[in-house]
């Protein structure tokens, strides 16, 4: 079992069996044989495994992490340093090499009745080092987050409230000197450098912001998963084993990673609010039409908005102040709060409890007035959602259909299938759906008059990165049923971080159209409130 | 001594004294108290310390590494997991936090007659993770390597021998759509986006190459250190504790890191050959004027050249084929080899021995014809070097003096001092120096006629990153005495990696002006030869 040619250094004799166990473990690691890996880790609550990102304690937590891991190492062990601490305790440090990259694994092996087991492990992911000849080129930026980035990419055009703020611009929004790619390399290849930035970009730069770069999007923004078949799946720093959500995947990750303070994105059906919820960020979708969408690649213009992700409400409000016209004086906050029990029932139990507990705490503290319930049946919501989806699909195909037909094979399977379905929507179907949406809009706006609607942003934490298409599609359906409400109403919405379980979700506030600034004020009050009742 | 509030988890009682020792070690780490750190590591050859990059064995190697470390951690310990393996052996895993970043330190403590000592340590450098509110923004690219980068930044303009090759362009060379910064932020701030790329950039893109990004340079390229007072010191992946060399610091690091295959730079006095030698790369400086320098920010036009860094000779030759006119048929290689004992004596003993051994091996294998010695006295070389330096300074001030005078405080101390000295050079001094350089050129060209000159690229490995200004200045003087010869002659030169000690140096071949392609062929033969005589 020991790999031939790997030098083993040990000041004295190595106890029987521990190297065999090490190599059995290593083979299982390369084969992603999780059963063997789990068996070779010491059972019980004291086993520990860490890397530069997380320190997991207990066999169960470690096994759970392993099941969510997407990347299987391909490195080889290059050298072993073995230190015997006691007859039943051996420390092994294994230097690993993967072409260019080098890494280090330290394992504490202890002898048990069942043989040698790992009681503690520390893994250093491969660090940058001189690559071997012929090694695969490494990108200077994370391709799942950025298409182009700089320090900065473009400087401010003035000084103002956004001084020092770096903006990651979703690759749907024009940046002067660069083509717009829409997350689709074949589309990008046909584009020229834009002569001018979108007005929203220029407005941010005039207010003092600089551009950090052009960040990735799900293909043509027609997804909320946060994975792009060409550029990869963006990281979710708040929950590394899970998807990050999309379609504003790059701006969200850039903000979550601290590489930008503002992610300028678009939200048609949830593309800002969903990644915000999944990553513990603040995501703001303005009133439809309040922020000009000139210079922005459309998806479904009836619902498309330009919005932003930030790490806190204050920064979100600063962006709003730069982009949205103030309406003379501080507008009054909404007098009433509405809840939608149906939307809450769509959420998973832990998320529902977390949400209800937080709202109750806000009410108890007086941060929110006591809420009332809006009556909406499941059948009506299904009808609204179907109509919303039909209109979105019809418009998406009208926007991109001719390009897609002329460039077969340019999209990943999931997005291609969605566009193929969109191609089948007839004008009659779309017209009927528009009538349903108009009625829904009227009902929603009636509820929102003088009120804010409070609901979970998403039904639960992001799917694991290992989730299959069926699971992702199921989550997508349940998520959009909730997230379609503000697009249907053309109403502003903000998602606030809702934490307390193992991965973030979001608490969403929806206000009446035009109440963007009061909605942000209400959000600021909630964000400043203590998380729990005393 | 234990930090209050840091949770300590241990399944049983913690042996006396080990936590005190841990906290003493941690305080010393934060204070960079190397004496305490060295004392708390177990003496002897079996102590081991690793991270994702290197695994050091033996107390001496670890202490040496520590003395070369530039960055002192500022993180705090957030959590301790303690496992007792024997009465005298304790494993401590410390999760650390530094604002945004998290890390992990694993230490095996053993009890000795002198108390608790670290017998093995594994450090995970902070990995990306969700930043804390208010955390310092992280750049999406390494600012010491890149100013702007993309996947790609600009695509190819054709298909050819450079298909798939990514180029890092030094920030002296025009890239369309971007300003040229010259490594000086205040200068960059006054520049507009270039309407067109330098012809050399366009030629590479027509041959199939894409641009990976715009890479950093020492300020106005007037340094060979590889550190920029504004953007930082570029990494040297081949020798992490050492400087990487400059002024083509960004292109060199980009190639060494595997983030580009070609670093397009400039070499006035050594700015390609020196970083190539320090990082184990191939660095090519063409015949003066052979590659057009239109669109390139000058330093000293009499010596300025556009050249390139690669990881192998084959890629360097492919770039040459795209940029240099072929001269009908394969030109014959040089018949004779010259050595310059004086230049070899300028090298440190280890470098000199390594160089002489390699040349002897080449001669023994017939890869190089037997060499003869060129007679050059130290006094003559000093005279040549002084004249070269005077002309370079005079031209550098003519190029940048008026801008520098109008923008005081825009340069780092070392470069500012160099320009200040340059400002004092009179026209008469420059004219006299030009006459000396012309005579030196004539002598060098006579030697190079039908021959190649073989010499060490640099007198020794790169200075440590902790080296002070005096040491760096001393190394600079000895280096330029060697590296000024090809600029004086206007002759092509190539530096090949010369490895065998703890950090790379280089073996330099200089050919007669115009023999760029035969020189590359000769370099390819050397690179293909076995490193040692059988």
Automatic annotation (TrEMBL), chains A, B:
Species whose genome carries this gene: Trebonia kvetii
Top-level taxon of the source organism: Bacteria
Domain annotation Amidase: ranges: 159-322
PROSITE patterns per UniProt: AMIDASES
Protein name, entry field: DUF3225 domain-containing protein
Stored InterPro entries: Amidase_CS, Amidase_dom, AS_sf, AtzH-like, NTF2-like_dom_sf
Alphabetical list of PANTHER family matching this protein: AMIDASE 1 (PTHR46310)
């Amino acid at each position: 079992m020991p790999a031939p040619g790997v030098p083993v250094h040990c000041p004295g004799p190595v106890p029987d069996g521990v190297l065999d166990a090490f190599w059995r473990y290593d083979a299982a690691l390369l084969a992603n044989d999780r059963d063997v890996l789990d068996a070779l880790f010491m059972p019980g609550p004291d086993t520990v495994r860490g890397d530069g990102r997380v320190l997991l304690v207990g066999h169960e937590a470690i096994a759970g992490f392993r099941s969510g891991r997407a990347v299987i190492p391909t490195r080889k062990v290059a050298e072993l340093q073995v230190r015997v601490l006691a007859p039943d305790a051996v420390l092994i440090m294994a230097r690993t090499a993967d072409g260019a990259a080098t890494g280090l694994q330290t394992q504490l092996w202890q002898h048990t009745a069942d043989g040698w087991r790992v009681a503690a492990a520390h893994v250093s992911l491969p660090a940058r080092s001189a690559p071997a000849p012929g090694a695969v080129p490494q990108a200077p930026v994370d391709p799942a987050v950025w298409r182009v980035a700089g320090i900065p990419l473009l400087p401010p055009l003035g000084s103002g409230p956004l001084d020092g703020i770096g903006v990651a611009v979703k690759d749907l929004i024009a940046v002067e000197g660069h083509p717009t790619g829409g997350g689709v390399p074949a589309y990008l290849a046909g584009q020229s450098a834009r002569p001018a930035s979108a007005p929203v970009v220029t407005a941010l730069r005039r207010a003092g912001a600089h551009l950090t770069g052009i960040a990735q999007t799900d293909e043509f923004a027609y997804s909320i998963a946060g994975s792009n078949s060409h550029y990869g799946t963006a990281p979710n720093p708040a929950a590394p084993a899970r998807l990050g959500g999309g379609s504003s995947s790059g701006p969200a990750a850039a903000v979550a990673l601290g590489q930008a303070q503002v992610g300028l994105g678009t939200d048609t059906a949830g593309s800002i609010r969903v990644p915000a919820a999944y990553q513990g960020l603040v995501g703001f979708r303005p009133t439809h039409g309040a922020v000009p969408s000139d210079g922005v690649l459309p998806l479904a213009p009836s619902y498309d908005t330009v919005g932003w992700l930030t790490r806190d409400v204050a920064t979100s409000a600063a962006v709003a102040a730069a982009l949205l016209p103030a309406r003379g004086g501080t507008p009054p906050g909404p007098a009433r709060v509405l809840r939608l029990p149906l939307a809450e029932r769509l959420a998973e139990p832990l998320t529902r409890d977390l949400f209800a507990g937080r709202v109750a705490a806000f009410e108890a503290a007086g941060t929110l007035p006591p809420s009332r319930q809006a009556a909406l049946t499941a059948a009506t919501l299904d009808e609204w959602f179907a109509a919303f989806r039909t209109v979105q699909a019809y418009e998406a195909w009208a926007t991109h259909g001719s390009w897609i037909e002329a460039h077969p094979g340019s999209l990943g399977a999931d997005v291609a299938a969605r566009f193929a379905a969109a191609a089948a929507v007839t004008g009659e179907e779309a017209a009927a759906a528009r009538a349903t949406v108009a009625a829904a809009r009227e009902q929603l706006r009636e509820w929102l008059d003088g009120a804010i609607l409070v609901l979970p942003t998403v039904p639960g934490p992001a799917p694991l990165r290992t989730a299959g298409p069926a699971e992702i599609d199921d989550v997508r359906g349940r998520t959009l049923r909730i997230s379609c409400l503000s697009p249907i109403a053309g109403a502003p919405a903000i998602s606030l971080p809702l934490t307390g379980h193992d991965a973030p979700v979001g608490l969403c506030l929806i206000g009446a159209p035009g109440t963007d600034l009061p909605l942000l004020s209400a959000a600021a009050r909630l964000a400043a409130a203590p998380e729990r009742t005393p």
